[in-house]
Amino acid sequence: MFVYLDNSATTRQYDQVTDAMAASMRDCFGNPSSLHAMGLAAEKEVRKARKAIASSLACHEDEIIFTSGGTESDNMALLSTAQARRREGKRIITTRVEHPAVLETCKVLERQGFELIYIDVDERCRLNFPQLKAAINDETILISVMAVNNEVGTIMPLRDISEIKKRAIFHTDAVQGLGKTELKRTGADMISLSAHKIHGPKGVGALYVRKGVTIPAFINGGGQEKHRRSGTENVPGITGFGMASQIAEKHFDQRVSAMAAARRRLFDGLCDQISDIRVNSPEDGAASVLNVSFLGCRGEVLLHTLEQDQIYVSTGSACSSNKKGRSHVLAAMGLSDKEIEGAIRFSFNEFNTAEEMDYVIDRVKTAVNRFRKLGSFR
Fold first, then answer.
1. Is 28 a catalytic residue?
2. What does the alpha-carbon distance between residue 294 and residue 270 come to, in Å, rounded to a whole number?
3. Residue 48 and residue 24: Cα distance in Å, rounded?
4. CA distance 254 to 141
């Protein structure tokens, strides 16, 4: 049995997305900036996708800027906001559990003289809200807090943050939230999105910028994307993103229910059949993620063992997997070295079945028991 449970890293494209992209490359290859009919046809495709993505956020299409992905969207939000508002203050607030696209950009800003405040989380990755509230002052120009944590699935209180942000710009990395949690009326001024987390193509994303928020151009050139991100648009990728977003919104309830059912079955089975485990995800987290530590095992070894049974999982963020060391998210949650070492992230899509989960439970149980008998990982 083939079971793909690494959907937080990337997803398989919907067939409709692939078909729409192929048609775009074959029949709609004009430059959207060209004035002739082929250019206008390409521009129409881009606008159709922009409307679909705007619909998922309940915003106006002019507030959507297309980018190369979530990482660029995060970089644009942080760097452009800091540049635009550096004379108004130097304090930037984020959390210790953000995606590297945010944390590495914050390091750049720190080297440029900005004051970075990193908010703590508890043992289930829930935000220390009083600490965040106390950190906001008249010097605060930017707050960046993710919508859903990519390693454990904790949902952050975006609406509550928007109500206390004062004059700061509030950005959220919602790459793991789109299509999995409600992102309408979050109160955020900027929202980062990515297509390949919702069965769209890789290499395309978007940044929502609320009307009235002014930021300088992130990429200079021909003035595309309202002069904020110049360069000829990736029309096939944008078309695919629009199609994926449209499907995700249309079937939102069914998708989330299917993921929740798979997550619950796996959760119950692992807890019932395997002792000495620690569930790191909160019960009220996103339906798309379940993070579990198997004490007495190494997550990386368990990952490759499951791979032999055609079960695909991860030990954390794919964007950090090439870096040696502990998960910064699990470390911030206060887990011990052994708990971090034995952690596995299972991340779901709407196509995962109960039969698949039963197969995974059986294979995980067999692997864990074998490693524990060897006793080499305790």
1. no
2. 10
3. 13
4. 39
pLDDT digits (tens, 9 = 90+) for 132-184: 999 999 999 999 999 999 999 999 999 999 999 999 999 999 999 999 999 99
Whether pTM exceeds 0.85: yes
Residue 155 pairs with which residues in a beta bridge? 148
Enumerate residues 6+ apart whose C-beta is below 8 A from 113. 90
Of 59, 106, 271, 319, which is the active-site residue? 319
266 with 51: CB under 8 angstroms?
Answer: no
pLDDT digit string, tens, across residues 14-25: 999 999 999 999
* 130 neighbors 121 (Cβ within 8 angstroms): no
